[in-house]
Automatic annotation (TrEMBL), chains A, B:
Cofactor dependence: Mg(2+)
PANTHER family xrefs: GEPHYRIN (PTHR10192:SF5), MOLYBDOPTERIN BIOSYNTHESIS PROTEIN (PTHR10192)
Function summary: Catalyzes the insertion of molybdate into adenylated molybdopterin with the concomitant release of AMP.
Protein name as it appears in the record: Molybdopterin molybdenumtransferase
Amino acid sequence: MSVQKRQIMQVDEAITKLLEVPLHGTVEIISLEDSDGRYLAEDLIAPHAVPPFDRSPYDGFALASQDTKTASHKEPVMFQVIDHIGAGAVSQRVISEKEAIRIMTGAQLPRGADAVVMLEVVKEHGVDAFELSRQINKGENVSYKGEDTKKGEIILTKGTRIHPGVIALLATFGYSEIPVFKRPLVGILATGTELLDIREPLQPGKIRNSNAYMIAAQLRKLGAHPVMLGTLSDDYDHTFLGIQNALKTVDLLITTGGVSVGDFDHLPRVYEELGATLLFNKIAMRPGSVTSAARFQDKMLFGLSGNPSACFVGCELFVRPYIVSSFHARKPHLTMMKATLGADFLKANPFTRFVRGTVTMNDSDIQAVPAGLDKSGSVSSLALANAFIVLRGGTRGWKKGDAVYVLLLDGEGSEWPWTVLLSK
Amino acid sequence: MSVQKRQIMQVDEAITKLLEVPLHGTVEIISLEDSDGRYLAEDLIAPHAVPPFDRSPYDGFALASQDTKTASHKEPVMFQVIDHIGAGAVSQRVISEKEAIRIMTGAQLPRGADAVVMLEVVKEHGVDAFELSRQINKGENVSYKGEDTKKGEIILTKGTRIHPGVIALLATFGYSEIPVFKRPLVGILATGTELLDIREPLQPGKIRNSNAYMIAAQLRKLGAHPVMLGTLSDDYDHTFLGIQNALKTVDLLITTGGVSVGDFDHLPRVYEELGATLLFNKIAMRPGSVTSAARFQDKMLFGLSGNPSACFVGCELFVRPYIVSSFHARKPHLTMMKATLGADFLKANPFTRFVRGTVTMNDSDIQAVPAGLDKSGSVSSLALANAFIVLRGGTRGWKKGDAVYVLLLDGEGSEWPWTVLLSK
C-alpha cells in the first residue's frame, strides 16, 4: 500500500463503491416531540380520513341546497335558524325544509345540510332567520370528509425526513410515537502528535484538534451520533490499538490524519494489519485526494485528511451519503445547483476542485464566489462557506461569469448529482 | 375591532411594524459542543495567528534557499539531513550551510530554513543525504504564520449562525465556551373547542391539535424554545385568563385560532381587554389573511390562524424574522430564489398567495410545483412542501412556465426579500 500502488478513483466511483456495502439502519420508536430531523423507518398510513367529517370552511349557515332553488333577488327565500354551532360542537338537530343552522369554520356539517352559505351573502332578520336571494349549489362551501386524505392512504413513506410540516401531519393522525432510524454511533479519532485539545493553551509546533469538533458538528447535522474518542499520537502501535479498540464500540469510525504517504502516516499499514478491505485511498479531487475508506468486518473506516478543509470536504462528499443512505433518504447527497462564478479562479488542476465558496441568491441570478484562502489547511474559509463550488478538472482555469455547479451545505439534498457534476 | 374596522396591510408593511419593536436577545455562555445552530452574541477575535508558526504544507526537506542557488541538473547540490521531524515536533537543530531537515506536513519550519523541497523532487542518498538539481525560491512550500488569520483579526461577527465550519474555526482558536443569544421562551396556546390532544382518539366533530406540535417544531428549527401551554376551549373568560396567565411565563406568545370574525373568535376582544396594542389583524395574503400581532407591555402576541397551512405560513413569514432578528442574524427571512412554475395555477386572487410547493433543482433549471391540496385547511400539502411559491396578487392566474419567486423552507435565509417579492 505504498504511494506507487495507489489507484486514483473518481468521486462518483468512490461513492458507488461505498454504497455497495451500505450501513443498515436499525429502528427505534421515539416521541413526536423528539423527532425533528429524523427519518421515518416505515411507510405510515392514514388511520382515518382528513377532514374526518364533512365540515364548513367558513362562517355561515348550513342548509339544504334544494331549498335555494327558487331564490332570487326578486324572490328571496326565508330560512329559520334552528341551531348555532362552533367548531368542535355537533348539532343534535336535523335540518328540515327552509331551515338552517348557523355554523362556524371547522364545525361538522349538520344532518340534512349539503351546503353552506357565507354570512356576508345573506340578509339576517334577527338571530332566528335570514333571507337568501341566490341559489346555492350542492357542496358549495363544504370541505368533504377525506378530501385532503382518505383513510388507509399512505401519508408518509419510509425515508421521509421529519420537518415541521411532517410533524403537522403526524399529529393530525395521532401518531405520537414514531418509528425512525437510529442515529448510528460514529467514532471520531484524530491522529497526530501535533494535536492539542481545544481547552489547552498553544504550544510550539502544535495546533488544536479542530477537526474532531468540526466532524462531530457535521455528523450531528446529518443525523448521526458522534462519539469523541480523543487523539492518538504518531506512534504506530498506539495508533493501531486505538483504532482496534474504537472499532468495538461504534457503528463506523472516522479518523483524521495519517492517510497520506508521510513517514508518520500510519493508517495504510493499520488497514493492512487489521485485514480491512480497502475501498479507496486516492480520489481525483482537491482538497482531500488522500481520503480513504476501508471495510473491517461489517464496519466502515473513513480515513479523512488532517487538513481542515480537506477533512470537511471528505466528510460531506463521502461520509454524508453513506450515513444518510442508512436512513433510506432519497436525497443523501449535498444539494446541487447551478450558479455563476463571481470571481476568476485561474489555477488549473487535473483533479476536480471543491472550492469552499459563498453562494448568494439575488434578484437576477445565483452567484458563487470562493471564500477566503483556497488552501487545504485553511480553516477560516470553512466558517465563511455555504457551498462548494465544483470546478471540474482540466487544463484551464475558470473565469468570472463562467457557469458552474455548486453543492449547498444547507439544503434538502440531491439524489445523485455526480453524473452532472463530473461529466465533461 | 369588528370585521368592518380591519385594515388590510401588505406583508412587508406588517413585518416592518413587527421589527420596529424588536425582541431583545439576551446572552448566555455555552459549550462549543452544544452550540450547533446558535448565533454568536459577540464579535470574536483571533487570540493568535493561524497558522501559529511557519510550517510545511508537504512532506519534504526544509532548507535554506540560499544553498540552492547553484543547483542544476548538471551540477546538483548535496545536502546533509541533520534531523527528522513530524507534525507536532520542533527540531532543536539549526540549519547551517548545505544542511536540511526531513519535515512532514504540518511541522514547524526549523530555524535556518526558509523553504521546503518536496520529497519527490530530490534524489535521496540513504537517509542522511540527498541531492537537489534545481533552485528553490525563498518561501517555496512554506505556509507562513498568520497567512490564514492574523492575531487580533475579527474572525467571526455577532449574529453569525454556528455551523460545522464555524465550529472548526472556534475550536482552532480554543474557544470552548461560546457567548450566544439565548433561545427565547415562546408559549404556544391553541384555542378551539374542537381540539383533541394528539394522544386522544377522534371524537365526532373534533380534530387533533396538530398546530401546536407543528409550531413547536418550526420554533425549534429557527432557534427558539417552545413552551406547550395546552388548549383553550371557545369560552371567552377561559381564553382571556389563559392568555393573561401565559404571558407571565414566556418571552412571547403564539396563539392559534380565534383571530377571525366568527362568533367564537375571541382573540380580538382579548387584545382589547388586555390593553394590548394591535399591530395588524388583516394581511393581504393567502392563506393566513387573519394573522394578527399585538403588543402587550414588552411582549409580542402572535395570533395565527387555526387552519394548519395558514398557521404554518404565518409562523414562517412573521414569527421567524421576529425571533431570528433577536439573534442579530443578517438573513432572518426565508431564502428567496427564482424558479419556473411547473404547473398552471389559474385561481386569481387580489392577495399574494404563498402556495405550499415543491422546488426541484435539476440540471437545467429550478422548477416549482404546488404541493397537494391548495386549501388553507390542508395539512398533507405541508408534509410535501419544501417551499412557498409566491404568486403576486392580481387579476390573472399563473401558467406553467411563468417565472416566479419561491421561498425555501430550508436554507440560509434572505436579508429582505420583500421588495423583490411584492413589487409588481
